[in-house]
């Protein structure tokens, strides 16, 4: 009886050692695999990165506006008829920033997206050069949340670009009622909030 107990203890000890060896080998393999993957993925080297978005009230709105042609809309020059803003980046080191300028429709808007046109221009060296041609809001691409700029879902893309060195860009956004929209007698309005998102590109 005693021999049986001893045999059982030896057998359990052997099994215990075998299980321990398997466990150690398994952990070592997992750690090795992770380290190997990590050396390939975690190789991003950057200095300091910052982005700026300078504006007053980051919204542009229409209230009881009359429809107009693209030619008239592109020439809107009163300060109440356009929205100016600057996007800049300060970069030291080697990296690229993907950024996106988007527009988010405010809930109180009563005009449909098919009734409103937007027009984005670059106000840098060549003043008022076209970036986004006159386009209905309904025709703009909506963000999905998978953009390189890190933009959240449900916004309209006005423009995307990159920074690879310290610089800035000046933009102007105009908005008007499309000339193919039939105005009703009711008071109607439309308001877009302009946002800028940026994220460093993986290298």
Compact overview of the structure:
Helix content is 22%, strand content 37%.
How are the SSEs ordered, and which strands pair?
Blueprint: H1 2-41, E1 49-54, E2 59-63, H2 70-74, E3 82-91, E4 97-105, E5 116-122, E6 129-136, E7 156-163, E8 167-177, E9 189-200
Antiparallel strand pairs: 1-3, 2-9, 3-8, 4-7, 4-9, 5-6, 5-8
Give an overview of the whole structure.
It is a single chain. By secondary structure, the protein is an alpha+beta fold. The chain folds into two domains: 43 residues; 152 residues, Sandwich (Jelly Rolls), CATH 2.60.120. Helix content is 22%, strand content 37%. It is built from two helices and nine strands; from the N terminus they run αββαβββββββ. The strands form two sheets. The protein has a five-stranded antiparallel β-sheet with strand order 1-3-8-5-6. The longest helix has 40 residues. It is globular. The protein starts with a helix and ends with a strand. 21% of the residues are buried.
């Amino acid at each position: 009886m005693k021999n049986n107990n001893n045999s059982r203890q030896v057998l359990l000890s052997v099994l215990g050692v075998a299980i321990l060896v398997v466990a150690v080998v398994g952990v070592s393999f997992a750690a090795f695999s992770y380290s190997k993957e990590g050396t390939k993925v975690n190789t991003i080297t950057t200095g300091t990165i910052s982005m700026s978005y300078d504006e007053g009230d980051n919204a542009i709105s229409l209230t009881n506006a009359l429809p107009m042609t693209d030619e008239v809309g592109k020439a809107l020059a009163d300060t109440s008829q356009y929205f100016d803003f600057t996007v800049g980046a300060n970069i030291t080191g080697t990296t690229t920033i993907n950024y996106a300028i988007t527009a988010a429709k405010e809930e109180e808007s009563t005009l449909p997206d098919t009734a409103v046109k937007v027009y984005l221009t670059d106000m840098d060296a060549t003043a008022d050069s076209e970036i986004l041609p006159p386009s209905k809001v309904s025709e703009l691409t909506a963000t999905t949340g998978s953009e390189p700029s890190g933009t959240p879902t449900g916004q309209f893309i006005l423009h995307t670009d990159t920074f690879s060195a310290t610089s800035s860009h000046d933009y102007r956004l105009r908005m008007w009622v499309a000339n193919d929209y039939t105005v009703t007698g009711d008071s109607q309005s439309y308001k877009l909030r302009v946002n800028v998102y940026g994220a460093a590109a993986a290298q």
